Amino acid sequence: MIRLGRRTSLLVACCMLTSSATAHAECAWVLWGYGSDKGVFSQMPVAAWATRQECTDDQAKRAKGTEKMVFVCLPDTVDPRGAKGAR
After folding, report:
1. pTM over 0.85
2. How far is the C-alpha of 65 from the C-alpha of 69, rounded, in Å?
3. Cα(17)–Cα(24) distance, rounded to whole angstroms?
4. pLDDT tens sequence across 19-69
5. Do 30 and 73 meet the contact criterion of CB atoms below 8 Å apart?
6. Beta-carbon contacts of residue 56 (< 8 Å; ≥ 6 apart)
7. CB atoms < 10 A from the CB of 55, how many?
8. From CA 73, how far away is CA 27, in angstroms rounded?
9. Using CA atoms, how far apart are residues 32 and 43, in angstroms rounded to an integer?
10. Cα dist. 5→1, 14, 15 in Å?
11. Cα–Cα distance for residue pair 23/16, rounded to 1 Å
């Protein structure tokens, strides 16, 4: 009976590690835009991409089109606006 419990615990631990590694590998990238208009600073998500390369390609295209905003690619797990309660 104890052996069965150990096997179950080991199986659960392996499944948890595998699922977290898979979730990290599927990370999306968000293109954030920063700028100010009439003295008011704003930061907002502009687009989302499946890979960092797609995000940086879009970042470069948008940067050529405007001098009023700065664009930054960040993983979707990062929100530069801070904690949700702080907004």
Report:
1. no
2. 9
3. 11
4. 333 344 568 999 999 998 888 889 999 999 999 999 999 999 999 988 889
5. yes
6. 73
7. 24
8. 12
9. 7
10. 7, 14, 15
11. 11
The owner of tokens 């293109």 is 31
Side chain identity, residue 3: R
Residue boundaries of the structural domains of the chain: 2-77
| Long-range contacts formed by 51-58: CB under 8 A, 24+ apart | 54/29, 55/29, 55/30, 55/31, 58/31
Q: Are 87 and 44 in contact (CB under 8 A)?
A: no
Map tokens 């835009």 to a residue. Answer: 33
d(CA 21, CA 13): 12
Tens digit of pLDDT for each residue in 55-82? 999 999 999 988 889 999 999 999 998 8
